[in-house]
Amino acid sequence: MKKLVWGLVIATLVLTLGFFAVGGKQGVMLLFVKHVLHTEAAPTQPVNWQQAPVQSANTGKRPPNILLIVADDLGYNDISLNGGGVAGAAVPTPNINSIAQNGINFSGGYAGNATCSPSRAAMLTGRYPTRFGFEFTSVPMTFSKMLAGAKSKGLHPAIYHSESEAAMPAFESQGVPTSEISMAKLLKQADYHTIHLGKWHMGESAAMAPNAHGFDESLGFLQGGMMFLEEGDPNVVNSQQRFDPIDTFLWAAAPFAVSYNNGTQFKPPSYVTDYFTDEALQAIKANKDRAFFLYLAYNAPHTPLQATREDYDALPQIKDHTRRVYAAMIRNLDRNIGRVLSELKTQGLADNTLVIFTSDNGGANYIGLDDLNKPYRGWKATFFEGGTRVPFFMQWPGVIPAGSRFSEPVSHFDIFATAAGVAGVPLPGDRVIDGVDLLPYALGSKHGRPHEDLFWRSGVYQVVRSADWKLQVNPTRDKVWLYDLATDPTEQHDLAAAQPERVGQLQAKLAAFNSQQAESLWPSLLEAPVLIDKPLNRPQAVTDEFIYWSN
């Protein structure tokens, strides 16, 4: 009854204030989201992981387990192995570092895209997501309208394409089509037990949920974000970024709820990063006697920024509150990844498990911190190196030599082909697979560049890296950038005006790539400005470099 009353009240306000107009009353929209769209979760429930049949203890007679650990919006500089670490090296990441130190650091690692959904789709399909129309991060239309309204003022106002609304499919169906062969489907050919744990964000309908894509078991959330603890929990320290409409939306809309196999939503019993780890340990124990693929997709350190009080209190040297909360989240994430690695050893599985660690994209400007992607320029949602360069580590003790390094460009979609290679499963022959098996490069049996060209696309914002040359095209700004990454890896010196012939050659490569891609499954509603060199909480200036991000 309470929700019904709220619904009637807010519906009246919506009609009165013109809620559905771009730039309408943001407060009304958030009331609608918080009190009408929000659903209550059931109390905590136990998860009974499927137990493997008892087999020979000789794990070497079966293919290696595959553990893919993905952080969410983790900045390149958040990893202390990459030369610094969050908060001026206040938070070392020894457990994440150990994956590279005990295996290989693909230091030229790139995200499949600069935002969550298409990047994850690239990992799990081995393909450019534009090949099957999964071009944009799926968000509710309500969110796009709110973001457009919030960014309608300032030096660089957002552009909202209301004419495309009629062509938008239902939000729940904006996902990866099941005609795609996911890594889970692929590995089931070799009798792997397949598990998704954590964030999904590749379709919220049952027809696009993890189980529909070949996962035997799934525990987590389907949407783009969730709370780490309830806002008023005594064990949580919160940091709200009130300057950011995305953060404002999440504090109103994000649930504190998970589900098992897309069933009833229930509240986790603890801080979500801890909880996902607790369940990962149980899943590993349950599957110690069979080959498994575990896709462990943490939502840390994505907003909303929430740390445990224990981790926050451990960092009194960090005076800025937001930085301290963010650093505490990194501290917690690293500790929990250490727990997962330790469990593999405890169960006698470490030597027969390929562990892969990465982030879905670069750190986000909407946190308001300025050094997340150092030394690179740009943020999440930009195709500057800061938006696409990510930690990319692998370990397989006794197979991959410890302390290896490979500096040539590799991409998220290579994870698919690498998994196929170690599992002994042939790649699908009925479609283009863009990824390559990285294990021969890790072992030194192959040399050179796995990819001569790499592409990124989000609507009209498009990029090609060919050898060491990188061209960015942003037609909404009538702007191109050209960089020589061999001499200028941090993209400081734009050579577009000085080298028009090379610009033309690279534009031709982009055109050839585009001719091979599918039409987007849904249109872009929003083109939002993103400053390249400043976080969102800094004042804008007319001289600022920026891109328009299509989504």
Helices and strands in order:
Blueprint: H1 2-17, H2 26-37, E1 65-71, H3 86-89, H4 94-101, E2 104-106, E3 109-110, H5 116-125, H6 141-150, E4 159-160, H7 183-188, E5 193-199, E6 217-221, E7 236-239, H8 245-253, E8 259-260, H9 272-286, E9 292-297, E10 305-308, H10 309-313, H11 321-346, E11 353-359, H12 385-388, E12 392-395, E13 404-406, E14 410-411, H13 414-423, H14 439-443, E15 453-458, E16 461-466, E17 469-474, E18 479-484, H15 500-514, E19 526-531, E20 546-550
Parallel strand pairs: 1-9, 1-11, 2-13, 3-14, 5-6, 5-9
Antiparallel strand pairs: 2-12, 4-19, 6-8, 7-10, 11-12, 15-16, 16-17, 17-18, 19-20
Offer a few descriptive terms.
globular; alpha/beta; disordered N terminus; 2 domains; 15 helices; Alkaline Phosphatase, subunit A; 20 strands; nine-stranded mixed β-sheet; 551 residues; four-stranded antiparallel β-sheet
H/I helix tally: 15
Biggest sheet layout: 9 strands, mixed
> What overall form do the CA principal axes indicate?
globular
The computed structural class is alpha/beta
What is the CATH top level name of the largest domain? Alpha Beta
**The CATH topology of the largest domain is what?**
Alkaline Phosphatase, subunit A
- In CATH terms, the superfamily of the largest domain is Alkaline Phosphatase, subunit A
**Overall tally of structural domains:** 2
User: How far apart, in Å, are the first and last alpha carbons?
Assistant: 37 Å
Radius of gyration: 22 Å
- CATH architecture identity of the largest domain: 3-Layer(aba) Sandwich
List how many beta strands DSSP finds: 20
Helix content: 25-40%
Average of pLDDT:
92
Task: Point out poorly predicted stretches.
Answer: 1-25
Q: Tell me what portion of residues adopts beta-strand conformation.
A: 15-25%
The largest sheet has its strands arranged as 8-6-5-9-1-11-12-2-13
